Amino acid sequence: MGLRKVGKKLANIQEVAKQARVSVATVSRVLNGQNTVSEKTRKKVEEAIKKLNYEPSMLGRNLRNSESRLFLILIPSISNPFYLEIIKGIEAVAISQNYNILLCETDSNPERENIYFDLVRKKMADGIISMDPTVNIETLKNLSENHAIIQCSEYEEGSGIPYVTIDNEDASYRAVKHLIQIGHKNIALINSDEKYLYARQRKMGYIRALEEYGITLNSQFIILTQHLGFENGQHAMKKLLNLHDRPTAVFAVSDLLAIGALKEIHASRLHVPSDIAVVGFDKIDFSNMTNPTLTTIAQPMYKMGTVAVKMLIDKMNGKEVESIILDHELVVRESTSGQFI
Amino acid sequence: MGLRKVGKKLANIQEVAKQARVSVATVSRVLNGQNTVSEKTRKKVEEAIKKLNYEPSMLGRNLRNSESRLFLILIPSISNPFYLEIIKGIEAVAISQNYNILLCETDSNPERENIYFDLVRKKMADGIISMDPTVNIETLKNLSENHAIIQCSEYEEGSGIPYVTIDNEDASYRAVKHLIQIGHKNIALINSDEKYLYARQRKMGYIRALEEYGITLNSQFIILTQHLGFENGQHAMKKLLNLHDRPTAVFAVSDLLAIGALKEIHASRLHVPSDIAVVGFDKIDFSNMTNPTLTTIAQPMYKMGTVAVKMLIDKMNGKEVESIILDHELVVRESTSGQFI
DNA sequence: TTTGGAAATGTAATCGATTTCATTTAGGCG
DNA sequence: CGCCTAAATGAAATCGATTACATTTCCAAA
Q1: Average confidence (pLDDT) over A264-280
Q2: So what's the pLDDT on residue A132?
Q3: E strands within A123-197?
Q4: Exposed e or buried b per residue across A312-341, where buried means at least 16 C-beta atoms within 10 angstroms of its C-beta
Q5: Nearest to B59 among A63, A78, A230 (CB)
Q6: Which chain A residues are Cβ-neighbours of B317 within 8 angstroms?
Q7: Is the pLDDT of residue B62 over 90?
Q8: Is B264 helix (H, G, I), strand (E, B) or coil?
Q9: Based on the domain organization, do A125 and A196 belong to the same domain?
Q10: Same domain? A74 vs A122
Q11: Is residue B7 part of a domain?
């Protein structure tokens, strides 16, 4: 490129060494706070650094140390607020450990995914935290032989890749149990595609709760959606409302789905929770802004993020890493706290 | 660190050269698709690459090229959905140009901000797209002398740093004019702190619309909030509802504020839009999920993102870059489409 | 066959740091 | 004052690529 780049030439460690009349080794030692430098030379070097406005280049350092101090966060879509709180947790720990993150939105697109995997292959990233359920697990397994990888929230059983998650089956069980305990018997499930492990697990929790209370499963009450978006919730709810015997309660496996359901219920001039109670999942920020506010399962997202990074850093340092299951919590709000029956 | 790192040793360009019985220069030429390599040697090299499972290290390449092919996106908070669509636009162009982005959440915290600026100073990032209105503009100006920087959406007048944004004054004017045209005279403004340029601009648009229709300004109708969150909208609306003569319409400078206002209005058993009409700003995804759906000003966020990256890349290549104002649009939805009066 | 010039390839410097190992300096002690 | 050890410093290799410049190879024309 024949184009002039922005900026003047910046000083490098050589020039600092010359300015301070010491060797580059000594400058490097001052930079890295090693204690084998005499007070006098340290002063000299620091003055030279200040005078030349020197900033050590991470490019040189990274090459020498064979690390980028970057890692990837794989998510299917940045629009899904569920991930945001996790990311905050990740960021906090990452920064404190002098790492930075590359937020990678795959759009569930294998090509896109591959671009990001390449970043790891080419040493531009030191590790991966995958939260993408649509990730190509074979590729991930292959990569995990040479690179540090942690699965967060979503995981593949028996992949050998450590994960941090919650007990989805139990969370789902509790959500449904709550609906049963406030008097519901006709409880629908808006689930996502059962190719995802969490979807299968949450369905099992749903079934277990029904069975425990002797409620027979109505297969018409289970709606599967392709994605976890608002519109998917609307469509699913529309189907449920068109049933001859429509449910009196709905458990959706994501808040966005639940909010879509809410909207559709309102559109049919029905009332939540007196006509239909709704429970979501995730406790995203918006679940508290709807009208009525949404009962939901709170995942410890921030914690999940922090734990994931710690596991990743351990893994990068060659330590043995165990998978972790975190606690969840049922948050009862207006969408189920009416006086049903 | 005495700990074993993950993974076996990976091949480097030297070993590929040896395996293919050529020089590293030739391997590099094959890698970079230069045409001065004969078909025969190219084959040899490609076979060696495959055999050794070689992946070129970006660390080496980046050092040699003095670039990281990374740039920073500065945002105050990832929780604000307004930024997400912009980021998608940024990502799309970045990827197509072989760049990756570091999403940097400052939390409006100068320390945090400085960590990210350091990344640029230390050459870990090639440029910055700042969307943070709380950014320290002096530091930004200083940095812009040596580094490529673009301001996106938020900007500082006369900073000399190119920006891409919309005409905030006009957008605000149109929103208020819309409220006037459907019959409102008592129109409140929920604005953010006027230390931000966009807040001052939007206030001016509000005033201009009122003046144009001969409506006298009621200073009690202007509420300033510290942040742009849901709760801030609730609080602001509470103040407005407590006024002796409460407004019949509210224009909030962000959808989140407007959604908070909606919630508060409902809590007071009032109806939108028949009792109070509401207009937001940004057209975030959720503005279409509320009940009623929200009238709002649509910013071309995706476009803004793509434009910002193009400007940044031009800037990095030393081209002269002009600031750009993009178009906006009023989107009328349920929160103002009732038959008021 | 010779030769000129283009095409192909190789050598070695370079990017900017860290680190090993060698060497110098300082200081305490007899 | 000389000696020994520990502390301080420096020289040079190294990380893994790119590339300017030098050299070799190839082929067509004379």
Answers
A1: 95
A2: 95
A3: 127-130, 148-152, 163-166, 187-192
A4: bbbbbeeeebeebeeebebbebbbbeeebe
A5: A63
A6: 1, 3, 5
A7: yes
A8: helix
A9: no
A10: yes
A11: no
Q: Tell me whether A270 touches chain B (CB under 8 Å).
A: no
Find the domain containing A231 and state its range.
168-299
pLDDT tens readout for residues A191-234: 999 999 999 999 999 999 999 999 999 999 999 999 999 999 99
In this prediction, residue A175 has a pLDDT band, given cuts at 50, 70 and 90, of very high
Tell whether the model's pLDDT for residue B103 goes beyond 90. Answer: yes
B8 touches strand D (CB under 7 A): no
Report B:50-79 residues touching A (Cβ under 8 A): 55-60, 62-63, 66, 68, 70, 78-79
Residues of chain A in contact with residue B112, where contact means CB-CB under 8 angstroms, are: 95
The three-state secondary structure class of B65 is helix
Reported as a single tens digit per residue, the pLDDT across B138-169 is: 999 999 999 999 999 999 988 999 999 999 99
Closest nt to A38 (CA→C1')?
D8
**Per-residue model confidence as pLDDT tens digits over B234-246:** 999 999 999 999 9
Total number of domains constituting chain B: 3
Among A134, A7, A82, smallest CA distance to A282 is for A82
A40 shares contact with chain B (CB less than 8 Å): no
pLDDT at A3: 41
Q: Encoding tokens for residue B116?
A: 């990210």
Instruction: Count CA atoms closer than 13 A to A238's CA, side-chain side.
Output: 9
Question: Do residues B152 and B235 share a domain?
Answer: no
Q: Which residue of B has its CA nearest to A4?
A: B318
AA letter at A176 = V
Flag whether B8 is in a domain: no
Name chain B contacts of A91, Cβ cutoff 8 Å: 105
pLDDT score, position B340: 42
If asked whether residues A154 and A172 sit together in one domain, one would say no
**Residue A222, burial from CB neighbour count under 10 angstroms (0-12, 13-18, 19+):** middle
Mean pLDDT of A250-273: 95
| A58 contact to strand C (CB, 7 A limit) | no
Backbone φ, ψ for residue B4 (5° rounding): -65, 130
* CA to C1' distance (Å), from B21 to C8: 14
Question: CA A257 → C1' C18, Å?
Answer: 53
Q: Are residues A91 and A192 in the same domain?
A: no
Residues B308, B284, single domain; the answer is: no
The strand pair at A295-298 and A329-331 is best described as antiparallel
Contacts of A288 in chain B (CB under 8 A): 230
Same domain flag for B46 and B118: no
Question: What's the Å distance between residue A38 CA and nucleotide D8 C1'?
Answer: 7
Q: Output the distance from B273 CA to D12 C1' rounded to whole Å.
A: 77
A70 neighbourhood in chain B, CB within 8 Å: 102
**How far away is chain A from the Cα of B105, in angstroms, using its nearest Cα?**
9
Q: How many residues does chain A have?
A: 341
To the nearest 5 percent, what fractions of chain A are helix, strand and coil?
45, 15, 40
What digits encode the pLDDT tens for the residues B14-26?
999 999 999 999 9
DSSP A74: E
* B4 within some domain: no
Asked whether residue B123 is domain-assigned, the answer is yes
**Mutation for B interface: A77, A149, A291, most B CBs within 10 A:** A291
**Do residue A219 and residue A244 come from a single domain?**
yes
Best mutation target among A71, A117, A124, A333 (most B Cβ atoms within 10 Å) is A124
- The 3-state DSSP composition of chain B as helix, strand, coil percent (nearest 5) reads 45, 15, 40
CATH number for the domain harbouring residue A104: 3.40.50.2300
pLDDT at A337: 87
